[in-house]
């Protein structure tokens, strides 16, 4: 093979490899963007990476909080085994920048309906993304709701949601 043809072939291979690398990078970047909470506007690559870093740190902090809460609840459960659990209802509201997470743990007394709980964040400017009511061991129900603002400019009135839910559960 003549040296000019070999150089040309080598250049084509490098060009092809670079094109594949960029395509793979775009796919991975798109996947990363899809894992972030919904955004109001398009962001630059740097903004997406900064947002992803912030979001991962928020999630790490949330995992740590939940581990501590779980440990505390397990300790309380050991202490109150065989007794009436007076810790119900337990309400937790976490504002994760562009999403709101509401968790309510209560006894099986029929006092709360998921529809009553969902109504409050919706009236305060939230759009419910997911909602679930799970029965756990014994007579415990766990309500879990994830919301995002209907309008990113207005947001969710988190303090009003918390105040109204506290009034509902008390």
UniProtKB/TrEMBL annotation:
Q: What is this protein called?
A: BHLH domain-containing protein
Q: Which organism is it from?
A: Hibiscus sabdariffa (roselle)
Query: What domain of life?
Result: Eukaryota
Q: Where in the cell is it found?
A: Nucleus
Positions in coiled-coil regions:
49-83
The keyword Transferase is assigned to this record:
no
Pfam families named in the record: HLH
Q: Which residues form the BHLH domain?
A: 9-59
- The question of whether Coiled coil is a record keyword is answered with yes
The alphabetical list of record keywords is: Coiled coil, Nucleus, Transcription, Transcription regulation
What's the main place this protein lives?
Answer: nucleus
């Amino acid at each position: 093979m003549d040296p000019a043809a070999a150089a040309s072939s080598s250049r084509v291979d490098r060009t092809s490899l670079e094109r594949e690398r960029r395509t793979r990078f775009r796919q991975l970047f798109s996947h990363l963007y899809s894992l972030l909470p919904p955004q109001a506007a398009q962001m630059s690559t740097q903004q997406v990476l900064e947002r992803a870093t912030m979001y991962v740190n928020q999630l790490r902090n949330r995992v740590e909080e939940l581990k501590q809460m779980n440990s505390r609840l397990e300790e309380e459960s050991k202490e109150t085994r065989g007794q009436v659990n007076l810790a119900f209802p337990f309400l937790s509201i976490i504002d994760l920048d562009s999403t709101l997470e509401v968790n309510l743990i209560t006894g099986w007394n029929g006092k709360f309906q998921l529809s009553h709980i969902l109504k409050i964040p919706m009236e305060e400017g939230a759009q419910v993304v997911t909602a679930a009511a799970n029965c756990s061991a014994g007579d415990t129900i766990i309500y879990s709701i994830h919301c995002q603002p209907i309008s990113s400019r207005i947001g969710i009135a988190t303090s009003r949601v918390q105040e109204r839910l506290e009034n509902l559960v008390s």
